[in-house]
Task: inverse folding
């Protein structure tokens, strides 16, 4: 499935906040922003949607277990353990687990504290 057949809702996904750091006291101009690390588990058949962007919310993802399919720009890319990808202002995607075991990723991003999507 490409972007035009994007998932409309999240299902079979659990997120766990591992840690967060208020960036205001750390970096001038970053008041109200937070560096966040989460563990995201997508069950078999699960979807992390809908189609979304990362404007104003850059991050990186690293896969610990399973395989995650990243649907981006009409291209479906499978990522397995030990692989990751960036999520920048040009990223517009959704994710799914087409495999038979839970897929687990570590997601690190910068978010606005008033809109932690």
Result:
């Amino acid at each position: 499935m490409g972007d035009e057949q994007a998932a409309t809702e999240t299902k079979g996904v659990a997120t766990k906040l591992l840690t967060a750091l208020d960036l205001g006291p750390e970096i001038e101009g970053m008041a109200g922003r937070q560096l966040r690390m989460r563990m995201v588990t997508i069950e078999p058949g699960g979807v992390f949607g809908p189609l979304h962007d990362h404007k104003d919310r850059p991050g990186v993802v690293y896969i610990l277990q399973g395989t995650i399919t990243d649907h981006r720009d009409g291209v479906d890319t499978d990522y397995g353990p030990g692989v990751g990808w960036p999520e920048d202002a040009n990223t517009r995607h959704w994710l799914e687990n087409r495999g038979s075991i839970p897929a687990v990723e570590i997601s690190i991003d910068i978010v606005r504290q008033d809109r932690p999507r």
Remarks:
- The longest strand covers residues 33-53.
- The domain at 3-112 is CATH 2.60.120.10 (Jelly Rolls).
